[in-house]
Specification:
Layout: H1 16-19, H2 23-27, E1 30-35, E2 38-44, H3 58-74, E3 82-93, E4 101-111, E5 115-123, E6 129-141
Antiparallel strand pairs: 1-2, 2-4, 3-6, 4-5, 5-6
């Protein structure tokens, strides 16, 4: 499989190409900005991300956190040679969304040869923290079986 190389020089507007026909696209997650060691994205608060009762589902927040952290790791390696696998995600949900969209910012805490650890804060439209997550990604050579 020929995988296009990602770099920090790709305009954020062109990232939709990587999301086509994925859960990320289904949830409406959109990357908004990124740079060395950080990634930002948004996700709608709507029928795709609701839990029963019409509130944002905590699992949707976990999917958003793992998405932005995974993409951050993808930007740091040669994805022709390496695959990124989320091996651990945990979160504390601290509030409820108060608008139609949430904002996530992932920042790398540990940049190792085999693992990356990211902190992801998810905030509501008012800027209130609604979830904070820790994501660990494993960096695996594509020919290795895990």
């Amino acid at each position: 499989m020929d995988i296009p190389k990602l770099t920090y020089s790709i305009p954020v507007e062109m990232l939709g190409h990587y999301l086509k026909d994925t859960m990320v696209e289904h949830l409406g997650i959109r990357f908004t900005a990124y740079g060395e060691g950080w990634v930002e994205a948004t996700m709608p608060v709507d029928r795709r991300t609701f839990r029963p009762g019409g509130f944002l589902h905590g699992g949707a927040n976990l999917a958003l956190a793992e998405t932005v952290a995974g993409f951050g790791s993808m930007l740091t390696v040669d994805i022709q040679e390496y695959d990124i696998r989320g091996i651990q995600v945990s979160a504390n949900h601290t509030g409820k969304a108060d608008g139609d969209i949430v904002y996530a910012r992932a920042e790398i805490l540990h940049f190792g040869k085999r693992t990356h650890v990211w902190n992801v804060d998810i905030k509501s439209e008012s800027g209130k923290l609604i979830s904070t997550a820790r994501v660990t990604n494993m960096i695996v050579k594509r020919h290795e079986k895990q």
